[in-house]
Amino acid sequence: VPRSRTEADTTKKTPVASDDATGPRKGRAPTGKLSLRLRFRRDRVLLLMTLPAVLLVLLFNYVPILGNIVAFQEYDPYISDNGIVSIMNSPWVGLENFERIFQDSAFWNSVRNTLVLFLLQLVLYFPVPILLALLINSVVRPRVRAISQAILYLPHFFSWVLVIAVFQQLFGGAGLLSQLLRDHGYDGLSLMTDPDTFKFLVTAQSVWKDAGWGIIVFLAALASVSPDLYEAAAMDGANRWRRMWHVTLPALRPVIALLLVLRVGDALTVGFEQILLQRDAVGPGAAEVLDTFVWWNGVRNQDFGYAAAAGLVKGVISLGLVLIANKVAHLMGEQGVYKK
Amino acid sequence: VTAVREATAVVDGPTRRPSRWAAPPRPVWEEKPSRAGIAGKGLVLLLACLAILFPLWIVVVTSLSSRKAIDEAGGLVMIPTDITFVAYQELLSGGQVTRAALVSIGITLVGTLFSMAVSVLCAYGLSRSGSLGHRWILMALLATMFFSAGLIPTYLLVQSLGLMDSYLALILPSAISVFNILVLRGFFMGISQELVDSARIDGAGDLRILWQIVLPLSRAVVAVITLFYAVGYWSAWFNASLYLNDQDMLPLQNVMIQLVQKQEAPVGLGQAIKTGELSGLAVQMAVMVMALLPVAVLSPFVQRHFKKGMLTGAVKG
User: Fold this and answer.
1) What is the pTM of this model?
2) Searching chain B, which residue's CA lies closest to the CA of residue A224?
3) Spatial distance between the Cα atoms of B75 and B95, rounded to a whole number of angstroms
4) What is the value of ipTM here, to two decimals?
5) What is the pLDDT at residue B308?
6) Which residues in chain B have their CB less than 8 angstroms from residue A54's CB?
7) CA-to-CA dists, residue B3 to A101, A157, A243, B6, B193, angstroms
């Protein structure tokens, strides 16, 4: 495929020497002197390639933002099968939905459940991958390492439906634990429907599913530590534990800090699918979180304006948290999700 | 490290390569580990692995057990005694579960292909630094990682687009993950520019460069991202519960919710379970095995590349 004349010309015009001196080492020729039209002609294939993704993101990530206006309406889903027609014909109610939310004890209950779950996961889930990574990293036999990694990663690829089904077979009313208890003359128990233990159960499910997967990031950080550091520490008389304290843990610190900050930024999202699947069995008192509150009011009760208002409150607070978390990451000298 | 190991393997020749079960030689400065230490570590690791494998073992064994074996065990079976494939035969001989499995396979294949095509094209389109507008597009994609439009507006949009009761509703809204695009892009950017330039001088266009140079050099990361997308489609159930009203259209995960969580009998098999020819428990377990088998078989093959898929996502202008 011969290149078009314009492109060939522009390439020719660019002095070879300046390519190394001023332009980026990789990528296109320096663009400073090219007009927009020429750059468009040169890059139109690249732009065309990004088009499908850009359209999908516009349609399913940006356009629905506008749909949040139903939070200011008493939206009536029965006007039409088409959401847009319904929006146009639904009455506006100002901030009424938001006032209702803040007086709704069910909403505050979901806020409390969300925050308790977030804290529980922070304390009981977050350290597990770090400890597992330290353990795996200290295993020196390559095959043992590879096999245990394969096993630990596996549940990450299971669906939540499957994970909860597995837990139900173990801890449910007809599950293995109840079966063993009954065999030995005790009463069976059903942890899967017990509101008191539900939050611990949810945390245990998260650990079982994702803690193994979480070690990858830490293993990579550990692998990047120069062996010279360990040798130097050993020469200075540091034993196994002191080497871990003074070499290994400092190497992990940036990753731990970053993940912690990101987790805090995402504090209001605590396993929507996982909890929704168990909400009805446990009851909303213990199992309702913010996301399921939106689902229940919108999808089940068809109170779309109210649900959208709750979703909007959550979305705005979450956005604020993410931005603050990234700011903190930058202040600590980490990269965060985006670069400064 | 891998490169070094491979290099040594070449020098030593394959016959003298040390067993991968053996520990590599210890540096002179490192103290000998105590037996108790090794045993303790091994035990913890073993327990962690058993915590994952033991439940799966029970599920698989029970799914393969006869009614008699399940009754004798009083429920879940730990030690296989009376092996039978009758639960699978019943589930796979047409009917609700067979159809749901086919739906899931179809959506996973079509969806993954679509997601990969869109993502790879976009990642390449954004990977040539200095190209027109790539910064803006990148920012627009990145911004979506900070907010979500919310469940209700998304639902209303899908409804307005006329996608209710259509399989497109299970593919389009979640077709691309910005994270995956960034990982692919990070990898594409690492490919030697000299290689790309020489192809361009030989007259190759961008599509040809992507197809004949960039993609063959990116097999590892493409495999990982393909797995991520495929697992996403295979595991999805929420959109189906939201957008599909027709029970006959539901994919496997949603049918599994009905069978296992709500303890319903599969359509058409209720009679066989009641009369005792078939164990309801074995049927539940067989559905679970069907859901876990594809990922359990495929993911270990891609395992050694996971690190690449997780870590090349750093965004460069």
Assistant:
1) 0.88
2) B1
3) 26
4) 0.88
5) 66
6) 122, 137, 140-141
7) 59, 29, 27, 5, 22
